[in-house]
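Batch 3, record 17
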Amino acid sequence: MTTPDIYRVDQRTEEYPGTFTLAISPRENSAPGNEATGTVAQAAAARATGAQQNESCQSFQPGQFNMLYVFGAGEVPISMSGAAGSGNGYIHTIRSLGAVTQGLERLRQGDPLGVRGPFGSGWPLAETAGRQVLIIAGGLGLAPLRPAIYHLLNPGANSGETMASRVSLFYGARTPAEMLYRRELEDWSRDIEVHTTVDSADQAWAGHVGVVTSLLSTTAIDPEQTIAFICGPEIMMRFSIQELIRRGVPTTAIYISMERNMKCATGHCGHCQWGPNFICRDGPVFRYGDIASWFSIREL
Amino acid sequence: MVTPMATEKSPPRILAAADLDLLIQALRSAGYRVVGPVLADQAIVYDEIAGADDLPQGWTDEQEKGFYRLRRRHDPAYFGYAVGPHSWKKYLHPPRRQVWRAHQSNGNLEIELPAEDSQATAFLGVRSCELHAIAIQDRVFLTGRYPNGSYQNRRQKVFTVSVNCTSAAATCFCQSMNTGPAVDLDCDLEMTEIVNAGEHYFLVRSGSDSGEAILKQLPLLPATADQTEGEAAAIDNAVQQMKNGPRSFDSSDLQSLLYRNYDSPAWDQVADRCLSCANCTMACPTCFCTTVEDTTDLSGQHAERWERWDSCFTGDFSHVHGGAIRPGTRSRYRQWLTHKLATWIDQFGSSGCVGCGRCIAWCPVGIDLTEEVKRIRELEQS
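Prediction for the assembled complex:
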C-alpha cells in the first residue's frame, strides 16, 4: 500500500443534513520547515513527488473511486462525483455513516486529508455514442453517476466522440429533502430528460411518488439502442434490472456499480470479494451480463 | 496452473546427518537469519534457529481432524514430521505490519512509510506444499496492477531450503492437489532425509547459484545409484500413504462442482458445526486477507496505520452500511471454501489449496475440507 497523497479541502457544501460534498485539490507546498531539514536531494525528490501528484489527479474515469484518509480515523472508498478532467482536484459527495465519514464531515476549508486513487473501473462512456442512455440512480447513487452525466451533457470536451442519441435520467430519493443536486437537476432538464421520484413526499413536493422502477415503466425504450447505467441500493438495482430485461434490454447493455467493504483498493485485503471478482479491481462498475450469475446469489 | 520448475537442479550429493549443522552455519555466515522447525507449545512451529540442535530431532507429529500431538520417533530424524500450525506466511506476510505513520499539526498532514525489515532470511525445511503456498501468495501479491512492495521486499531476500516428504500425516492430501510430496518448484537447495538402520544422511541438490555457493562449503560425497533409488522409494512411501488414505480424492472438477452448488444443503449442515472461529484461515498458508487498524496517540498529533491478518469468518469482514453481507456462518464458510477451491482459480490461475491439512488438524470441531467436498458431491447426486 503506497502512502496517500496530501490534499486540502477547497470547498465544502452541505447537500442535506449528514450528506456533504467536498472539493479537494493537492496541497501546493509541503509543510513549512520540512524541506529545510532535509538534504538537497530530498528536497528535489519532494518536488518531483509533488509534480507527480499534480499530474496523477488530473484525470479519472467517471465511476471510479478514491480512498479518502482522515488522520487517525482510517480510509473509505468514495466515488468521484465531479467532472473528470477539469482542474487538478476531485469532488466527492459523502454521507456521514461511520467513523471515517464522520471525520470527513468535520473537515472544513483548508483542512488536509489523504487521497489514494483513482481505483477501479468506470462507466463505458465510449459505448454511449448514438444510443439511448438510461441513467438510473437511487439516493446517494446519483453521486458516482454525476461525472457520467457531465460527460454526456458535454461530449464535445472529448475530441471526436459522437453524442448519445438521447439521455434520460431516472432519480429516486427517499424524500425531497434528501434529493442530491436539486438545482443541477433543474439545469440538466433543459438538455436531457430528468425524471424524479421520492419514496415519501412532503407538502411542497408536486412530483412523482414511488420507486424509481415505476418511472421506468412509463418511458418509451428502444431496447436494441439502449445502454443503461444503474447505481443505488442493491434492491433498487435488482428491480431496475428486472424491468429493463422485461422491456427487452440485453443484459450486455446494462451496467451497475457495486459496493462492498474495502480496506486496500488494490485486490490484496480480500474484503470486497464477490464471487471471483474483487469489487475494487474488477469493479465497481460491472457489465450486468458478465456478473448476472453472481448477482443472483444471496449473501455472496 | 502450477509454475513448472524453471531451473534444473544439480545432481544429488550426500551430506552426512552429522554435518547438517555445517549447512546451517554456512547460511548464517552468508548473512542469513535461519528460520526452521522448532519445538514450542507442544507443537512443531517455525522460529529462528542457531544450529541443528534447535531442530526437533527424533520427534514426529500425529494429526487427525481437530487433533495434533507430538510423539517420540524411534530414530534420530531431523525432519520426520508433517507441517504444524505455523507456515512461512508469518515471515512473508506478517500477522501485523505497520503500513504508514501520519503526523498532523498546525493544519498540516504528513504521511510516511515505516522502514522495512531488510534482513535476508533462509527458510530451512520448506515442504513441497509450502513452496506451492509461497508461489500462490506470490501470485496474489506480486502480479497485477498493484504489486505489493512490502511483500516483494521480504520475498526477494528469502533463501529456501526445501525438504522432500518421505511420510505423510493422516491430514495430508497434497497428492490430490498436485502439490507434492516431491519438491517440483524452484528452491535454492533441496534435501531428502534418509534414515536407515545404521545410516543417516541427506541427498542435497542446488537449484540456484547461491544454493551451489553454500553447498561448496560443505563436505559432500557423490550420491550412488542405490542412494538415488532409495530416495525415490522414500518419497513414494509418502505418495502411497496418501493414495491409500481417507483423504485421497479427485480435485480436477472442484471449481465446477462448487459453482453448481452455492445452494447445497451441505452449507447448512457445516454451519451447524462451524464455530466461525477463523482458525482455519490463520493456519492456512495461502489465506491472505487483512484488515487495517488506525490509531492516534494521546497528543492527537501522531497516527499509525497497521495491517493485520483478518478472516472471512469474522462479522466485520463483510460489513457495509446496514450490516454484514455475510451475516451467518453458512455464507462465511461457503465464502471460505468456494474461494479456496473455486473462485481462486479465476482470480489467480490456480487453486488456493495446497493439501497441507492444517485447516483440518487445527479446526477445534474437526471440520474436514475433504469431507465437506465429498458431502457437497453426494448431496448433489442424491
